[in-house]
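Batch 3, record 17
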Amino acid sequence: MHGTMQISQKGHLTIGGCDTVELVKEFGTPLYVMDEEHLRNVCREYYQAFMAKYPQSEVIYASKAFFNLAMARIIAQEKLGLDVVSGGELYTAMKAGFPAERIYFHGNNKSQEEIEYALKSNIGRIVVDNPHELAILEDAAEKCKKKIKILLRIQPGIEAHTHEYIKTGQIDSKFGMAIATGQALDMVKMAYAAKNVDLEGLHCHIGSQIFEIESFRHTAEVMMGFVKQIKDNLGIGIAELNLGGGFGVYYKEGDQPVPINEFADVILGTVAQQAEKMGLQIPKVIIEPGRSISCTAGTTLYTVGSIKHIPGIRNYVAVDGGMGDNPRPALYQAKYEAIVANKADASPEEMVSITGKCCESGDMLIWDINLPKMESGDILAVASTGAYNYSMSSNYNRLPRPAVVLVDNGKAEIIVAGETYEDLIRNDVVPERLWDNGKQLRTVSR
Ligand code: LLP
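Prediction for the assembled complex:
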């Protein structure tokens, strides 16, 4: 139970003061539900732990986790910055009136068009991944007669896993240039020599869903060591250090997220200590959480359809969504918890597996979960689906993507409309010669 989730007297799950059974009647299933109060509370917790306490810090939301116009407005109102990784994410932010100077543009293979769009939009920083991009940016900035502030994506050689970190791994990565190979220092030299860019700082990101605070402490140390190397070798000062996102969240029993203020104190404390030890200026520290901002604010509601008991083997409970709206179990063996929203006060009675409706055996949402006696028509609520679910959803099997509804204080508002069958064929084009003569099907319009 996250955020504003409660169980009503009727035994129904409520989120943001809205009865989920009523939400389903109004909006149908599958349905992504976002808890606005919880979302804003997490943003405020980040703001307080970092920006309010350490004015030389900034929290930018990694929009890849969950993004649309309404989300952009919430992030803007909560005074956070924004990490975008594509022209599409940038377009969404600009259309939502997100303050451009608070936008950072990441990505390992930005196109010329994306770079020009970023320059025209006057965004705050471009995070340059490699020398090829630096050259494109230099030309584009020259053409636009603009100077652009950049960070360089550095590969610190730390591979963080959920339960461990390896100091030497990850040189083999498509992101950034490695310190260990000397290529990172070379790129710093190139950036410094480039006429149309201002080298403001460095960026790194060591992975996602990380619970080990030590991984972040170590990353801060390695990056400050590199700042010192730059100073010693090139005489260049580094003003900004972006240490990426990746803070772990609760999905299932055993997940123990580190409190946000602890993260802040460790990260900023380490940077300050290292600066003092090495006689460097303390740089501005930026972090870019995605999952830990939007994940636990999201819940997906499904309707149960067929139930199949295979004696002695497994009980399959099928819902009306699946890998189309949540590809994470199939992609990453991700684990989720769920409750039966219309029987939220009932005790577990049977072990079941929740399967989706896609034509793939791997389309499983939850392999084994104890739930009350399941019946067709029940509403299943799968928790912690606010990050990388909607944003990674697909139309596989031509299933329309579900709507996203924002709930708060008893009010439910659509922020992304559910797709219709019409939407599914909107971009389809039938060359004239494929229609059979005289068939009226041609009236299918674009
Ligand atoms: N910054 C950079 C440069 C990143 O690449 C990412 C995530 C983040 C920040 C945000 O990380 P977060 O705080 O959300 O962990 N689709 C996967 C997650 C991919 C994360 C990619 N990069 C999943 O569903 O688990």
